Amino acid sequence: STNARTGSSYFSYVTSPISHAMDGQSRKHRILMVSDFFFPNFGGVESHIYYLSQCLLKLGHKVVVMTHAYGKRSGVRYVTGGLKVYYVPWRPFLMQNTLPTLFMTFPIIRTILIRERISVVHGHQAFSTLCHEALMHARTMGYKVVFTDHSLYGFADVGSIHMNKVLQFTLADIDQAICVSHTSKENTVLRSGISPDKVFMVPNAVDTAMFTPSSNRLSCDEIIIVVISRLVYRKGADLLVEVIPEVCRLFPKVRFIVGGDGPKRVRLEEMREKFSLQDRVEMLGAVPHAQVRSVLISGHIFLNSSLTEAFCIAILEAASCGLLTVSTRVGGVPEVLPDDMIVLAEPDPEDMVRAVRQAIDILPGIDPQIMHRRMKKLYSWDDVA
C-alpha cells in the first residue's frame, strides 16, 4: 500500500509548464525514458525501464525510450504495446556506455524532446552517460526531470569518487530522484548531496504472469541450484568459484545450472575442469529474458552471490517461479523478500555453503504455488507505475 501510494504520486508531483497544456487530458504525461541500458541488452535496469513503460502506457501516458544503437539496431523501433524506442546512432565504447561528449548529444536530445512533446524526462542508472547528458540538457531547456538510481557505489576508490562527483553535478538541479531500496536511498543521498526530501523509495517489481512455477512439482531426488547472473566481479562470480566445488563435495545429489556470461566465465570453466564437475555444473552462457523462466523452473534453489546490490530483480523472478533463494546479505537484498522465503549469508564462501545447507534442509516444506501467490500480493509493476 505504501509502495503503491509512493509510486502513484511520483508522476503527479513531477509536473512541467509544458504539461499545463494537457490539463484537459486528465494530466496525462509524455515521458522520455533515457538510459544506455535497454533491450536487446539484458539486465535489471533494462527490465525496469521496459515494464515501467508498459504500465505507464496502460495508464494512458505517452512513453518514449531513448538509448544508443545496439549493433544493427539503429533508428526508431516499436516494441510491445506501441512503446517507441529511439536507438540513436551512438556506439558504446565501454560496458555498453557511450563516450561522454557533454554537448554532442544536445541536438538529437532536443529534437526528440520537441518532436514527441515531452513533459517529463526520466533518466536511469548512475553510470549511464546518456542519462546524465539528457538530464542536464532537459533542465537547461526547462523540462522537469526525474532520476532513478539502480546501484550502490562506494566512496573510497577512484572510480567511485569520480562517479560521485558527476552525480553531484547532474543531480544538483533535478526535481526528484527515485531509489529502489531504503539502502539505495541512503547511499544516493550521501553520494550526490541531494536533499533527502527529493528522494523517494519505489521498489522494483516482477511480472508474476510471466514468471510462474512449473505445473509439475520437481522431485527432490536431485536438487538443482540455479544461478542466473552476469559473470562479473560485482556479481560475486569469484565467490561461486569457491562455493560450487564445496557444495558438490558435501551434497552428492546437488547439481548446478549457471546462466549468464561475462569476463569471469573463464574462471568458472576452469573450476569445472579442475574439480571434474562437467556432469554436475551446466554452463548455459547468456540467457535471453524470454527463456529465463524455463531455466528457473528446472531448479529448486536460486543462488545469488552479489557483492553489492541495491535491489535484485532476479531474486523476485526466482521467488515468483517458486524457488527458495539463497543470497548474500548485501545492500538492499534483505529488504526484498520475507525471512521465510530467503536464506541470507555473508559474502564469504564458508557462510554461503552454510546457507545452501540450510536451504536444502528446509526445501521439503516449500510450496512453489504458495510462494507464487505471495509474490503476486507483494510486488506489481502497476503499483510501481
TrEMBL record:
Biological pathway: Glycolipid biosynthesis; glycosylphosphatidylinositol-anchor biosynthesis
Source taxon at top rank: Eukaryota
Broad enzyme group: transferase
Occurrences of domain Glycosyl transferase family (ranges): 219-361
CDD domains referenced in this protein's UniProt entry, alphabetically: GT4_PIG-A-like
Assigned keywords, A-Z: Glycosyltransferase, GPI-anchor biosynthesis, Transferase
GO CC entries: glycosylphosphatidylinositol-N-acetylglucosaminyltransferase (GPI-GnT) complex
UniProt name for this protein: phosphatidylinositol N-acetylglucosaminyltransferase
